[in-house]
């Protein structure tokens, strides 16, 4: 009877219920807390990997900025007038879905009477086509190579003020320089400071030229800016960072950056993201607010800390309880553990793990 009692006590108190609950309970509560705040983790691995992130790469347009550029400057050159330039540029831009081109179209009323043929897009450079019988090219310096000193000066002036400059070429002649501005989100600066306070390096990634990128980076306090990056090159930037041992999170809206989202250790699609961005990402932020990236990091770290606490108490309970149930104090003190008390202790350990995990619900992120 004595041996049977001791055996039952050991078997009961050795039940690994607390160990089995330690991780899944914290993951469940953590992901639930995230969902309440518009942060959706694809799986438990995404939640775990997020707390290891050492570098966050931010795509500029639509992520750091509101993603709704506005045409602010139209500077005609070489004898062209404002109306003529806008009619050709607007008709060509109407065929494109790029935010910069949409900014031009929004300034015009009716373009239905202007024919556009042979429309083509060169990613990261610009667009071209035959507009009303004239060859029109619109884009950055990489696409429009035949620019003169006057146009270069205008580009530099616009770039220095943080605006994106587009050249318009009609029949081989530079006809205008267009200035387009994209407003920085109100939450961007606070979010970047929040990431840096947590020891996370921030990298700004943009297809804009170096002067525009530097102006935006300086405004936001980002020292590392990678400019003039073509869409297909964004993935290479992420790979280069990972090759140096960095755990990289890529944040973007999916326009030209879905491959980079998939390549990163943690891909984060921000609220206005495209469907392909959501499919490529590990974390989806339902709101178009960069502060949610900081909240994601905070929640992930708190969840992993909670898991470690749960595991510690579960191991501590088993390490202490099993020797006592086996009779380590019986010979010296005559104490043995009643199986009913062992059962109560086992239940208490499981309840304590659950209650500790539920503390995450009160986390302020």
Name its key features:
single chain; 365 residues; alpha/beta; Rossmann fold; Calcium-transporting ATPase, cytoplasmic domain N; 7-stranded mixed β-sheet; 6-stranded antiparallel β-sheet
Structural notes for this entry:
With 365 residues, the chain is α/β, with parallel strands linked by helices. It has three domains: 2-21 and 299-362; 51-66 and 187-286, Rossmann fold, CATH 3.40.50.1000; 70-181, Calcium-transporting ATPase, cytoplasmic domain N, CATH 3.40.1110. Helix content is 48%, strand content 19%. The protein contains 15 helices and 13 strands. The chain has helices spanning 2-13, 17-36, 44-50, 60-64, 82-93, 99-105, 149-160, 188-197, 210-220, 234-243, 258-263, 275-280, 291-325, 330-333, 339-358; strands at 39-41, 55-59, 70-76, 116-122, 126-131, 134-139, 164-170, 173-181, 201-205, 224-226, 248-252, 266-269, 283-285. A seven-stranded mixed sheet has the order 1-13-12-11-2-9-10, sandwiched between helices. Strand 11 (248-252), helix 11 and strand 12 form a beta-alpha-beta unit. Helix 1 packs parallel to helix 15 and helix 2 packs antiparallel against helix 13. The chain is rod-shaped. The mean pLDDT is 86.
């Amino acid at each position: 009877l004595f041996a049977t009692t001791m055996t039952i006590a050991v078997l009961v108190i050795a039940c690994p219920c607390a160990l089995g609950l330690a991780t899944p309970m914290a993951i469940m509560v953590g992901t639930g807390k995230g969902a309440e705040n518009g942060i959706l983790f694809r799986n438990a691995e995404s939640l775990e990997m997020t707390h290891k992130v050492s570098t966050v790469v931010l795509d500029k347009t639509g992520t750091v900025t509101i993603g709704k550029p506005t045409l602010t400057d139209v500077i005609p050159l070489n004898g062209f007038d404002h109306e003529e330039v806008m009619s050709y540029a607007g008709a060509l831009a109407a065929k494109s879905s790029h935010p910069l081109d949409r900014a031009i179209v929004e300034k015009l009323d009716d373009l239905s009477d202007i024919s556009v043929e042979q429309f083509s897009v060169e990613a990261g450079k610009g667009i071209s086509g035959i507009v009303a019988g004239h060859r029109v090219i619109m884009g950055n310096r990489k696409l429009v190579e035949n620019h003169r000193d006057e146009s270069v000066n205008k580009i530099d002036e616009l770039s220095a003020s943080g605006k994106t400059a587009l050249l318009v070429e009609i029949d081989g002649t530079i006809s205008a320089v267009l200035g387009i501005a994209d407003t920085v989100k109100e939450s961007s600066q606070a979010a970047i400071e929040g990431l840096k306070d947590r020891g996370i390096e921030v990298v700004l990634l943009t297809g804009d030229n170096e002067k525009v990128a530097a102006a935006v980076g300086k405004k936001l306090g980002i020292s590392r800016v990678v400019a003039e990056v073509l869409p297909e090159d964004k993935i290479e930037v992420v790979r280069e960072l990972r090759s140096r041992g960095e755990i990289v999170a890529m944040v973007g809206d999916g326009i030209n950056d879905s491959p980079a989202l998939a390549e990163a250790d943690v891909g984060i699609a921000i609220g206005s993201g495209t469907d392909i961005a959501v499919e490529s990402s590990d974390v989806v932020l339902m709101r178009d607010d960069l502060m949610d990236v900081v909240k994601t990091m905070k929640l992930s770290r708190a969840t992993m800390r909670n898991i470690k606490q749960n595991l510690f108490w579960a191991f501590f309970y088993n390490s202490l309880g099993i020797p006592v149930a086996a009779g380590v104090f019986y010979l010296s003190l005559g104490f043995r553990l009643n199986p009913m008390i062992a059962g109560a202790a086992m239940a208490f350990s499981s309840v304590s793990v659950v209650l500790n995990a539920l503390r995450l619900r009160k986390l302020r992120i």
